[in-house]
Amino acid sequence: MATLKDVANKVGVSITTVSRVLNNRGAISQKTKNKVFKAMKELNYFPNEMARSLSNKNSHLIGLIVPYIGHPFFGMLTDAIEEACYLQEYKLLLCTSNGHPGREKELFYMLRANNVAGVLVCSRIEDAEEYFDTDFPIVSIERTIENVPSVSCDNYKGGVFAARELMDSGCKHPLLFGNRTREHLPAYLRYKGFCEECEKAGVDYKKYYIEPEDLFGKVLPQNIESLFRDYPNTDGIFATSDVLAARVINILGENSAYPQNMKVVGFDGIDISEYCNISTVKQPIREMGDLATHVLTKRINGVLVPERSILPVTFVRRKSSGPKKD
Amino acid sequence: MATLKDVANKVGVSITTVSRVLNNRGAISQKTKNKVFKAMKELNYFPNEMARSLSNKNSHLIGLIVPYIGHPFFGMLTDAIEEACYLQEYKLLLCTSNGHPGREKELFYMLRANNVAGVLVCSRIEDAEEYFDTDFPIVSIERTIENVPSVSCDNYKGGVFAARELMDSGCKHPLLFGNRTREHLPAYLRYKGFCEECEKAGVDYKKYYIEPEDLFGKVLPQNIESLFRDYPNTDGIFATSDVLAARVINILGENSAYPQNMKVVGFDGIDISEYCNISTVKQPIREMGDLATHVLTKRINGVLVPERSILPVTFVRRKSSGPKKD
Fold first, then answer.
1. Contact B298, B86 (CB under 8 A)
2. Which B positions 214-243 lie with beta carbon below 8 A of chain A?
3. By C-alpha distance, which of A86, A63, A130 is closest to B91?
4. For the segment B263-285, what is each residue's pLDDT rounded down to a tens digit?
5. Are B53 and A50 inside 8 Å of each other by CB?
6. H or E element: which one contains B11?
């Protein structure tokens, strides 16, 4: 059986160089890497990284649990996390919980049993007690969990921005349209910021909640119908995600019985907001993923990290909330 | 140090049950699982799955290499693959190559060194020789690679559908607008189907290529400008992805100097096509991910699998190609 030394001899480099290529550490030219890979293939040498990681405290594996990877927010977030892992020589083990707390718990234990060095989680477990009081490195993205460092955006400010935009556009009866949320979910502060800003301005606002599963389902047109039956004066909608905003605009456009100049503001700042010309509160998604990865790797290496990191949001004005009324 | 037996005793179940929970095999109720997890936590028992997998031929790890996870096509595909892995008791190690052949090669060797049982790849390596003639289980998604089983959709038929739709909508000067492609990339057959269908009908069609990086960049408005300078008669555009179609429609809508009734057909059938009302050729993305995972796990288990699996595409007519002209 071929050894590391055989590969090094074949290429004409040192064992250290081959080892660095294998572990993706140190600056090695692509040319040398290709030579090493070629020699490995020819000698059929595929060292078992796992065997090695057993004698190594840090497995250089990071687990990531997200509810859905098909949602553009989580896609972009995962992309940024994967990139940050790659640059720091970690590998990513991706799991999706489909939003089920039970499945999320299972995945967390599976990841630990697979010797990951740490876990990044967008948790949907209400009490999140799985993650409490543990010396194991965890970073929570988007929500706070007791004793766990978290990275999120300024959701409260985002809600304030949405309320201001609708009021500045002349809306007298703005409405918050979003998933039913609870205090532990990221949307909670978003809603709070919106409501408190409307209250501060003395504006009569309403709230209409849908169930999380309605977003992807066929129920949304019925929700919109009942929304306008209950609140016929509605003249502006804060849809609490861009995907929801895009669907609302699409449904309103298909039925001329609905008001055709509805002001709509979304949340997230994903590509779809640009393509569908939606005014939105932009989260720094890539920066959140990058920062969360860095906080985690610091924790893995025993460095003290912030308990909470809150990144700023920005407002992007587009066609859906129309020109600003002065 | 706690053992498997301690956990079993604490919960009052057999060692086999605890082992099944750990390995996510067999039908165990969520209630029992939670009890086992709780006991593990209390006893601080986290068995090293890696140590076990060394004595096990099948690591139950699958590697996935995609060019970009932030693109909705790959997001949806990855989502389906992760789900299929979960249901078959495999775990997924996700890597993105950012479209760089050199990085893709590195990732492939890293995955092998990490003892994955098999690899799913959406390759961007032109010759793809890394994957030739190997006994190691690989499944290629979207493109064919010599001696490697592949799963794709009927790209040629998709191109035919797009050409027919534009011609049926009355276009006399349809134009193919997409990334410069080569024979080894999935778009190649898409283009071929479009061109040959136009030729068959004797219609004067044009092609306008952009560089892959233009799609996400700021260059696209300039591309569109030069497109209409070169081919002012253009009355229908086949944008070879939905994301590209959405961007084209957005750019045309923002400048009244451009024709405002341009027929546009996209490709992929991702959510954005629905929200932006884009007629499109729909790929069965989830089914492709699911099938690819099953082909790979069959190969891992030594079952003979099809060399090529081609899933059908469908055409979805929406506003962007307007009502059909009879």
1. no
2. 243
3. A63
4. 999 999 999 999 899 999 999 99
5. yes
6. helix B4-11
Alpha-carbon gap: A271 to the closest alpha carbon of chain B (Å): 9
Q: What are phi and psi of A206, to 5 degrees?
A: -125, 165
CATH number, domain of B238, equals 3.40.50.2300
Number of domains in chain B: 3
Chain A hits for B30, Cβ within 8 Å: 102
Contact flag A113-B46 (C-beta cutoff 8 Å): yes
Exposed, middle or buried: residue B111 (CB in 10 Å: 0-12, 13-18, 19+)? Answer: buried
Report B:269-288 residues touching A (Cβ under 8 A). Answer: 271-272, 274-277
Most confident of A87-101, A240-254, B19-33: A240-254
What residues 120-179 of chain A have any CB closer than 8 A to a CB of chain B? 130
- Concatenated DSSP letters of A216-227: TSS-HHHHHHHH
Burial pattern A283-321, b for ≥16 Cβ within 10 A else e, equals bbbbebbbbbbbbbbbbbeeeebeeebbeebebbebebb
Over the stretch B240-263, which tens digit does the pLDDT of each residue have?
A: 999 999 999 999 988 888 988 899
Identify which of B68, B92, B115 has the shortest CB distance to residue A48: B115
Q: Which domain holds residue A109?
A: 61-152+285-311
* Set of chain B residues whose Cβ sits within 8 Å of the Cβ of A24: 106, 110
Is the domain of B141 the same as that of B161? no
Does A116 lie at the interface with B, CB-CB under 8 angstroms? no
- The single-letter code of the amino acid at A149 is P
The sheet that has A174-179: what strands, in order across it? A206-210, A174-179, A236-239, A263-268, A279-282, A314-316
- The alpha-carbon gap from A76 to the nearest alpha carbon of chain B, in Å, equals 4
Helix (H) or strand (E) holding B246: helix B242-254
- What's this model's pTM, rounded to 2 decimal places? 0.79
